[in-house]
Design goal:
- By secondary structure, the chain is α/β, with parallel strands linked by helices.
- The chain folds into two domains: 158 residues, SPOUT methyltransferase, trefoil knot domain (Alpha/beta knot, 3-Layer(aba) Sandwich); 83 residues, Orthogonal Bundle (Trp Operon Repressor, Chain A).
- Helix content is 34%, strand content 16%.
- The strands form three sheets. The chain has a five-stranded parallel β-sheet with strand order 2-1-6-5-7, with helices on both faces.
- Strand 5, helix 4 and strand 6 form a beta-alpha-beta unit.
- The radius of gyration is 24 Å and the shape is elongated.
- The two termini are 45 Å apart.
Length: 255
């Protein structure tokens, strides 16, 4: 996959491209990321890429000529061109999955007070990462790129993305590490039971409960399965069987 990012500030991406999963994905050839400096395309005799808004108003607006020339230079027949914009639909995991199936994605970062309106007809789609104000689209383009790349084959271990927050409109279940008892706060015994089916059901139930508590908006649009309804309705006493199993094992591996 190829991701091209058009920006006025290429240096903002130095850390993003040279750390963690992104760096490894690039090294393995999973993804190619190209950062394009819009300033390189200006034809203004003073090398300006912005100007005061026609009709008056605060701030500066990015000029259309350098952006459109940059887009035309990097576009291919398979390109999907996306502008980071508050007009766009709010980004989510479903959109990340959709974009991860494409061959060529171009992300256009705005800055200052916005972009000349005439640029809109040269992009395929507009996306917003949330209802708040940033100084530019650079951070948003990193968010989108990161969410796409981690879904690509070979970027991270497949089992790491099987069950994650926002899949099926649910938050992920709780995760723990040793020690078993930390300042009186203990890991749920079921996770030591060795009963993988019971653990899976417990995790599903916790996922539902966490989503209901912290993200009611997601929970309300999630369509509950028969199993999920049963998990939410079950009596807490039903957990006695797997608690006993964990106790009988003696938790020999607990330090």
């Amino acid at each position: 996959m190829k991701i091209t990012i058009l920006t006025l500030f290429p240096e903002m991406f130095d850390g993003f491209l040279t750390n963690s999963i992104i760096k490894r994905a690039i090294a393995k050839g999973v993804v190619e990321i190209k950062i394009v400096n819009i300033r390189d395309y200006t034809k203004d005799r003073y090398n300006r890429v912005d100007s005061a808004p026609v009709g008056g108003g605060a701030g500066l607006i990015m000029k259309c000529q350098p952006i459109i020339d940059a887009l035309n230079d990097v576009k291919s027949e398979s390109s999907k061109t996306i502008m980071l914009s508050p007009r766009g639909k709010t980004y989510n995991q479903a959109k990340a999955k959709e974009l991860s199936k494409l061959e060529d994605v171009i992300l256009l970062c705005g800055h200052y007070e916005g972009i000349d309106e005439r640029v809109n007809k040269y992009v395929d789609e507009q996306i917003s990462i949330g209802d708040y104000i940033l100084t530019g689209g650079e951070l948003g383009s990193m968010v989108i790129s990161d969410s796409i790349i981690r879904l690509l084959d070979g970027a991270i271990a497949e089992e790491s993305i099987i069950e994650e927050s926002f899949d099926n409109d649910l938050l992920e279940y709780p995760q723990y590490t040793e020690p078993y008892d930390f300042n009186g706060d203990k890991i749920p015994d079921i996770l030591y039971s060795g009963n993988h089916q019971a653990i899976e059901k417990w995790r599903k139930k916790q996922s539902l409960l966490l989503t209901k508590e912290y993200r009611k908006d997601l929970f309300d649009k999630h369509i509950l399965t028969k199993l999920e309804k049963k998990l939410l309705d079950e009596d807490p006493k039903e957990k006695a069987s797997w608690e006993l199993a964990a106790i009988e094992k003696g938790k020999k591996f607990i330090k």
